[in-house]
């Protein structure tokens, strides 16, 4: 069950992270007030969102880490997180930025990351 909670928290964390890192690009397009916000304002806005990312990321790593009783070693946690990040980003960019296209080389990169997960879990 700890593995399930770890992955669920990582997914939620990555949704917040993606919004913090890239959401301001979309908001600039949609809201005139946001377009006029100085860079420090955009950074603060992203930090507020990133706070919630950390509220999920840190517990996910604590729950999931083998030395804390979880099912994953450190490398497995990181690779899982990277694959989740990629999946969340592809969904976000496809939904929020319709002008961005997902090409064959992007799909191949996803396949290689899934292969990385397989290799990390191989005994």
Describe the protein's architecture and organization.
The chain is an all-alpha fold. 81% of the residues lie in helices and 0% in strands. It has five helices and no strands. α1 (2-30) runs parallel beside α4 (74-96). The mean pLDDT is 90. The chain crosses the membrane at residues 7-25, 37-56, 77-97, 103-121. Keywords: Membrane, Transmembrane, Transmembrane helix. This is DMT family protein. InterPro entries: DUF486.
Give the distance, in angstroms, between the N- and C-terminal Cα atoms: 21 Å
Helix content: over 70%
Q: Major sheet, described briefly?
A: none
What is the string of helix and strand elements? HHHHH
Shape: flat
What is the number of helical segments per DSSP (H or I, 4+ residues)? 5
Strand composition percent: under 5%
Low-confidence parts: none
Structural class: mainly alpha
Q: Give a count of the beta strands, DSSP E runs of length 2 or more.
A: 0
**Cα gyration radius (Å):** 17 Å
Q: Kindly report the average pLDDT value.
A: 90
Brief sketch in words of this structure:
This protein has 123 residues and is mainly alpha-helical. The protein is built from five helices and no strands. It is flat, with a radius of gyration of 17 Å.
Which structural traits does this protein have?
single chain; 123 residues; mainly alpha; 5 helices
